[in-house]
Amino acid sequence: KAGYYPIVSTHIELFRSNKSPSNKLTKISCCVLGYNSGVLDYNTGTFFRAIKPHGLESYLDNYKLGGDLLKALNMTREDDGTFLYRSQFEIVEDDKKIGCVKEHKALKELLDFLQNYPGCVILGLDEDSVAILVEKLKEVNKEKFKKIVVGFTYWKRVLKYNDVAGYRTLDLEEYFTQTFQEDLSSNTIPEVLLKSVMEVSSKKHLLYKICKRIGCLEKAINLEYDRKANVENVEVFSSFRPYVSATFSAEMMEQVIVSSESDSEPEETGRSVVSKPEETTRNISPLPTEVRDTNIPIDGAVLEKNTDGTEAKPPPQAQLARELPEMQTKEMYWDMGQLDTRIDKREGTVICPNLKCNSQVNFCNIENHLKKVHKAKVTSLSCGKCKCLVAPSALATHFPLCYDSHQHVNGPPQSSILTKNLNHSIIKEHPEVTIIDGLSVVEDN
User: Fold this and answer.
1) What values do phi and psi take at 364, rounded to 5?
2) Scanning 121, 253, 266, 373, which has its CA 20 to 30 A from the CA of 350?
3) Alpha-carbon gap, residue 87 to 74, rounded angstroms
4) Quick one: pLDDT at residue 281?
5) Is 375 helix (H, G, I), strand (E, B) or coil?
6) What DSSP character marks residue 50?
7) Distance of CA 329 to the CA centre of its chain
8) In order along the chain (445 residues), what is the average pLDDT of each group of 10 residues?
9) Distance (Å) of CA 439 to CA 85, 255, 280
């Protein structure tokens, strides 16, 4: 019906992928039509927010892109990880820098801006862009939105109901340059839209007559997407120039993290071994319950004393599992790796118990590897062969004895030979004593 309705001209820019159904905002800009001393004023109120689309850092860091994504977004990434709305080599004074914000914050601030114009009508480039913006505003605060916005309209609808010939194909940019003979760069897109709409409407219909109630707005068009697509394409889209949107291929890069350590620290062997999923599971039988739940002394570990002077028992396997928050494997155990064949090394290796890692690490460096790479502290795990609990520091002693000649290392350490001889002598003198394979005993003083 007739009345005064503030007209809020809007423009949004979108970031989307052919593997996702969502539209992510990268830019919101508005201007409000008003009167100043009886003259139309297209800058009664203005609003602009540059938005960092969710997941942008992941595309920049983990994907090989077929183009310059930041250039298409007109953004730069600063050293502190923030993003600014500007071209790469543009010099901007500190007080004029525009920082990019999250989408939810930008939409909340837009609602606060619109609150200054209750009963307003939203004007957009097309119905779909209006629908996308309205749906996102409702997600932030539906009740607040309903109290502020009463109607909507868009460029093609204005042309149609003003009987403009060829309205289906008449481009906004073309109409503006031919009608106003102005430099397009001196106007924002909401200003271009608002001036053009007011010019068209002044010839036949009042603008409010070609607006619709906000409740009649159709839902945004569902994007076609395929999560299983072989090639991902990302797009920076603007309905102002829909046929020249920037589209890039995005290919996930395989990353290899190489740990750089000082000369004083033990060194790891090579990089992780990549294998097929069906080859990842190691053929080791599950740990027997009677062994898993028994507090067996840990091979090579020194047990602390309790306050009453008795020996403290090592943690059972269930507790050890809780000490490995990032270990993604059902059964945790030590498994023998391949020989590090470098002349200056020739050490045996152990496979990292984290199946997602699967690195082969020198005996002397496995504890450091688990701490640095997986942020996990390991007291002990079961040997994959004998099922005994073994401390990381005792692997170099335990594996040569347990696996015999399975791994041709440069012979077991001297401590292993002494322990082995001691075990044989005790068994010979005390045949009733049984020593589990992989464990050792020490002679009383």
Assistant:
1) -70, -10
2) 253
3) 5
4) 39
5) coil
6) E
7) 23
8) 80 95 95 69 83 94 93 93 90 89 97 94 96 97 95 94 88 90 84 92 74 93 90 93 89 66 44 39 38 39 48 47 43 70 58 77 82 77 81 80 52 40 48 48 49
9) 65, 40, 29
**So what's the pLDDT on residue 339?**
62
Between CA 403 and CA 413 the distance in angstroms is 14
Edge to edge, the sheet with strand 381-383 lists 360-362, 349-351, 333-336, 381-383, 389-390
Query: Which pLDDT score, from 0 to 100, does residue 104 have?
Result: 97
Long-range Cβ pairs for the range 410-418 (8 Å, 24+): 410/346, 410/347
d(CA 74, CA 252): 23
E-strand spans in 379-431?
381-383, 389-390
Helix (H, G, I), strand (E, B) or coil at 256: coil
Secondary structure of residue 231 in the 3-state scheme: coil
Chain Cα centroid distance, residue 31: 34
Spatial contact of 138 and 176, defined as CB atoms under 8 Å apart: no
Q: Which two tokens stand for residue 256?
A: 């290899």
Q: How far is CA 67 from CA 24, 70, 72, 205, 234, in A?
A: 19, 9, 9, 45, 10
Question: For residue 146, is it left (φ>0), alpha (ψ between -120 and 50) or beta?
Answer: alpha
Distance CA 71, CA 67 (A): 9
Please indicate, yes or no, whether the overall pTM of this predicted structure exceeds 0.70. Answer: no
* Tokens (6 digits) for 311: 């020996």
3-state secondary structure of 158: helix
How far is 12 from 129, CA to CA, in rounded Å?
7
